Amino acid sequence: MRCACSALALALLGACASQQSGYGIGPQAERQAMLQRTNRDPAPDTPGMYLGLIDRMQSQGLYFASLAHIDAFEKQYGVTPDSILLRADALRMTDQPEASAGAYAQLLQTPLAARGHRGLGLIAGGQGDFGRAASELQQAAQLAPTDATVLSDLGYARLRAGDVAGARVPLMKAAELDSTNPKVVSNIALFLLANGQAAAAQTLMNHQKLALDVRAAIRSDAAKVAAASRDGAHAGAAVTGMTVPSSARNAPAGTVASMQNTMEPAPRLLQRFAQ
């Protein structure tokens, strides 16, 4: 669940931030220019066009301004599931988690229920509750089984909860559905590290030319995954009365699953990103 989020802490349960590049005005200037145009131009004359405008504003990072326009939209056209989703996303991105969670909850009985569960999962992940995040994202994945972003977020949440083996399937699905998505790629690299396949992870990061700060974030998350896995092993041992061997306590997260051949060989993973 950080966009990742590149496997950066879950601003989305598992995501990686894209690099801004190119010539011309910078992103901040673009946002200001768009805000000025929005304030100057009249509102679109159809609900669909107005929702599209608000969505574009959010894609530019104008979340506070989008909240004002959502108010205006709902005053003119009434509340719809699409306007609730836009409001929930804007509230989450403006650090209003309680109000955002309330808006996402309103979506659970609508056709946008998958987006509601995903939003609740991202909020839980942002608060460090990766078990609850994984539960919400699992429900989102059941409702939207081909959404690579949801699957990637689910895999990330499971990794951060210490469930390395459980992260494998959703991440492999996400990789085959959208192999060019930087968030998915970074979460696959995190999975490989957590599974004790450091060489394969390094090869993947090199092939995808991931930035140094993204690689550092992935390695930082891998250490957190390892700690969560050890905590889970200790908790399980306490319940059953068993003692965790020192070799298992010191092993990289996911090594046991690797030894049991439950994970796909690294070369096949890497081939998916070489096509």
Labels describing this entry:
Serine Threonine Protein Phosphatase 5, Tetratricopeptide repeat, 275 residues, 15 helices, two-stranded antiparallel ribbon, 68% helix, globular, mainly alpha, disordered N terminus, disordered C terminus
Textual characterization of the structure:
Residues 1-23, 243-267 and 269-275 have low confidence and may be disordered. The chain is globular, with a radius of gyration of 20 Å. It is built from 15 helices and two strands. It has helices at residues 27-40, 47-59, 63-77, 81-93, 97-106, 113-126, 130-143, 148-160, 164-177, 182-194, 198-207, 212-240, 246-250, 255-259, 266-271; strands spanning 5-8, 15-16. The chain has a two-stranded antiparallel ribbon with strand order 1-2. The chain has 275 residues and is mainly alpha-helical. It has a single domain (5-16, 38-271), classed as Serine Threonine Protein Phosphatase 5, Tetratricopeptide repeat (Alpha Horseshoe).
CATH architecture: Alpha Horseshoe
Spatial strand arrangement across the major sheet:
1-2
Number of strands: 2
Shape: globular
Mean pLDDT: 80
Q: Residue share in helices?
A: 55-70%
Number of helices: 15
